[in-house]
Amino acid sequence: MVVEVTVQETSPFDGQKPGTSGLRKAVTVFQQKHYTENFVQCILDSIPEEKRKGCTLVVGGDGRFFMRDAIQIISRMAAANGVGELVIGHNGIFSTPAVSCIIRKIKARGGILLTASHNPGGPEGDFGIKYNTENGGPAPEAVTNEIFARTGKITSYKLCKEITVDLDTIGSNSWEVEGHTFTVTVRDSVEDYTQLMKEIFDFDLLKKLISGDSDQQPFKFVANAMNGVTGPYLKRILCQELGAPDSATLKCEPKEDFGGDHPDPNQTYAADLLELLKEGVHQIGAAFDGDGDRNMILGQNAFFVTPSDSVAVIADNAMCIPYFAKTGLKGVARSMPTSAAIDRVGQKMRIECFEVPTGWKFFGNLMDAERISLCGEESFGTGSDHIREKDGVWAFLAWLSIIVSRKMSVQDIMKDFWKKYGRSFFLRCDYENVDSEAANKVIEVLRKAVEDSSLVNKTLTGGSGKEQKSYQVKSTDDFSYTDPIDGSLTSKQGIRVIFTDGSRLIFRLSGTGSTNATIRVYVESYEPDESKHMQEAKNVLKPLLDIALDISQLQKLTGRDAPTVIT
Ligand code: G6P
Ligand code: ZN
């Protein structure tokens, strides 16, 4: 069918600046006339014309409300802007890791991901659009800055109004647009990703664990998709491929509003999983976020594994995973606020260990340059260079691989790890939905203290009674990072207060919220003494948290006397 191109006049919208991970706003914002179209045109314009003409882009999302509308818009506009083919997930569904996997596999020019990750969805919730480049990873800042610059100048966009894509049928359809062919291929949502997992892990061994055999009972676990995109992936991999019963997977139907839940796998929003694990029946539990790149791991009786520890344990046990046994661990990395647990593993293995700003995109260059194979973030992100996104289901399969190889429980694996390396106690306190001005004030107070070095060498005390503890400040800074591969500088990435014993306080504003501000306070301290490893993190870190609140004047400036979420 031959279709016409229409040029539609438009004018710029304020604030179309991609955050830590794409443009995220309330659905109602994206529903404004021309809003989504403007942003999509700027993404397409950011691809140089000679690379855009006839190129292939991968498109899919986490199933949230407005995703289907957005896919139709993208299809009409991609056709009109000379794109050759869109590869779209069946029913529009692709997890974020699956998009990364397919971009790399079919050597696409890039991908457009329709997700606001762990933010709630539905007509009253959030929507998001993220652009990934040809390495399969989130677009680097040079690209997102260019997209943003274009959003401020846009005067028109192009579309083919007659195109409507049937998302519910697998297969291809083509249209003729100004002498070129535009094809849409609707592709199975889980097949490519499942094949990749089979290359990375030993499915026969995992199947024995999960299904049991003559000398072993089936291993009891539960995986919760939180009504997000991982449902079909869990069903296919855990149930169909590895033989787990249906009852081992929960909330596996992707819902437009995530069933009204907040699809963020932490102890607050996945409280139902925590309660279930407390019953002591399951040996491991996992939850995943809306778009499938985050994960939370719990052991029996709801023993919580911090994401900082999780990636460090995977590093220490990398040889239990066939992929790493083959490629070796080239190096490791973590985001700045993530605890130093993985650094100690890296040092022991004598491999490079990088500290990058918050945001998965900062790992991409290191992976492409083959400097790292494994990385993680405190924000429940764990992943490797098999793709260029963090990967929730991969992390769970990694844990299952360690459990089956070491024949130990989650808790024993953790205890053994702490015995070997010491324990980094870690907490993150989030103050959500704070007035933006007040949040900026908090950061200003801290920045000032960094600028005039007023905290350095000071002894600060927190906690009360027997729990009182003092720490001496060694240094303070506002974290900045020079990418070792391309030399780009990223500054103002969070205030760090580092103490003489290696303990740290970190303050930064979230880059993923859609309204107002979220202040994150990260608290970390190191304990080498094994007899103290089983203490509660919140007790151990109470004095440091008091110090954090004191030096930031957070309570006074924001009027908040408690965090909204503690992870
Ligand atoms: C997204 C990114 C992560 C990052 C996180 C930080 O999930 O993919 O790489 O760690 O956002 O979010 P924040 O709200 O702390 O900026
Ligand atoms: Zn996510």
UniProtKB/TrEMBL annotation:
Q: In this protein, which residues make up the domain named Alpha-D-phosphohexomutase alpha/beta/alpha?
A: 16-157, 193-298, 309-421
State the top-level EC class: isomerase
**TM ranges:** none
UniProt cross-references to CDD domains, sorted A to Z: PGM1 (cd03085)
- Show the catalytic activity: alpha-D-glucose 1-phosphate = alpha-D-glucose 6-phosphate
Q: Which residues form a coiled coil?
A: none
Alphabetic keyword roster: Isomerase, Magnesium, Metal-binding, Phosphoprotein
What's one Pfam family here?
PGM_PMM_I
Cofactor(s) recorded for this entry are: Mg(2+)
EC annotation?
5.4.2.2
- Which family does the UniProt entry place this protein in? Belongs to the phosphohexose mutase family.
Name assigned to this protein: phosphoglucomutase (alpha-D-glucose-1,6-bisphosphate-dependent)
Q: What organism is this sequence from?
A: Porites lobata
